[in-house]
Design goal:
The structure is a single chain. This protein is of the alpha/beta class and 293 residues long. The protein is built from seven helices and twelve strands. Strand 4 and strand 5 form a beta hairpin. It is globular.
Length: 293
């Protein structure tokens, strides 16, 4: 029996009025996301990815159709839904500790509980020892970790991430992608991440939602049936990535199909598009790094 949707998006259309001209950003979008699932949304700039994320988080409610979270209609922001933006948006006059605690401003916890929650999330993102640091004393990667901690501190059911690593260098980006994967595994919450980076979408997501250019529609949903943590250089992951790129580039009308992995004795070269059914296992990753990146 299929699990009920934790986040349900039904026939959602979002229009804007730009200089007197009606602009359709999203057109009749429907999507079900299960509890604990990691869904990534990918597409070209202007396809409505971030608009869909803001609607799901309740930051924008001007739309046709229905959005439900946990069976309740989303009609505004909620502590049950956290969000992380591309820029950390930390207040420069507040320490890391105080910036993270802002996520609990309206939460019904005692002062002691809030202190404990803040301490736990700072440790989870690898910032222990930097509680009293100010944003200008942090690297870009560390500042983004603080932003993630703020999004997680009130233990939301769903965490929305709007291109959280888009402004970071390649090395820092790869490090934080791995750490986000570990956080997701540890917290077991639903995550929805918007990105224009296909490698990131395939590496992190259980499913990759591919958006078509404006007006934004869901063109296709590609499952990534590989265990976590994943190996970036695995042929299985590369095959799925190539399939997603083909769909985005319009070179194929179908999702990449799984193929049977040939025996080691005679294994031809992998094709560009198939999703490999074989799963790999590897030792658990080490604890979160506190190295400044």
């Amino acid at each position: 029996m299929t699990s009920p949707a934790h986040l349900k998006i039904r026939n959602v259309t979002r229009r804007f009025n730009v200089n007197g001209t009606a602009l359709t950003a999203l057109d009749d979008v429907s999507l079900d996301i299960k509890a604990g699932e990691f869904v990534t949304i990918v597409g070209a700039s202007g396809c409505g990815k971030s608009t869909l994320l803001r609607l799901g988080a309740g930051l924008d409610v001007e739309h046709d159709g229905v959005i439900e979270h946990g069976g309740r209609r989303v009609d505004g922001p909620s502590l049950d839904r956290g969000i992380v933006f591309q820029e950390p948006r930390l207040f420069p006059w507040l320490t890391v500790e105080r910036n993270v605690s802002l996520g609990l401003e309206n939460a019904a916890f005692s002062k002691a509980e809030k202190r404990e929650l803040v301490s736990e999330q700072i440790a989870l993102v690898g910032l222990s020892g930097f509680e009293k640091a100010y944003p200008h004393q942090l690297s870009g990667g560390m500042a983004q970790r603080a932003g993630i901690a703020r999004g997680l501190v009130n233990r939301p059911d769903v965490l929305f991430l709007d291109e959280p690593f888009g402004a970071l260098d390649a090395i820092t980006k790869a490090r934080l992608q791995g750490e986000l994967q570990q956080i997701w595994a540890a917290e077991k919450i639903t995550m929805v991440l918007v990105t224009h980076d296909v490698d990131e979408a395939v590496y992190l997501g259980d499913r990759v939602v591919i958006m078509s250019p404006r007006p934004g529609r869901i063109r296709q949903i590609v499952p990534v049936d590989l265990p976590h943590p994943r190996e970036r250089t695995s042929p299985e992951l590369a095959a799925i990535r190539n399939g997603v790129l083909d769909i985005l580039n319009g070179t194929t009308g179908e999702a990449p199909k799984p193929v049977t992995r040939p025996s080691a004795a005679r294994r031809p070269a992998a094709s560009a598009n198939p999703i490999h059914a074989a799963h790999r296992t590897k030792p658990a990753r080490p604890a979160f790094s506190t190295t400044e990146i």
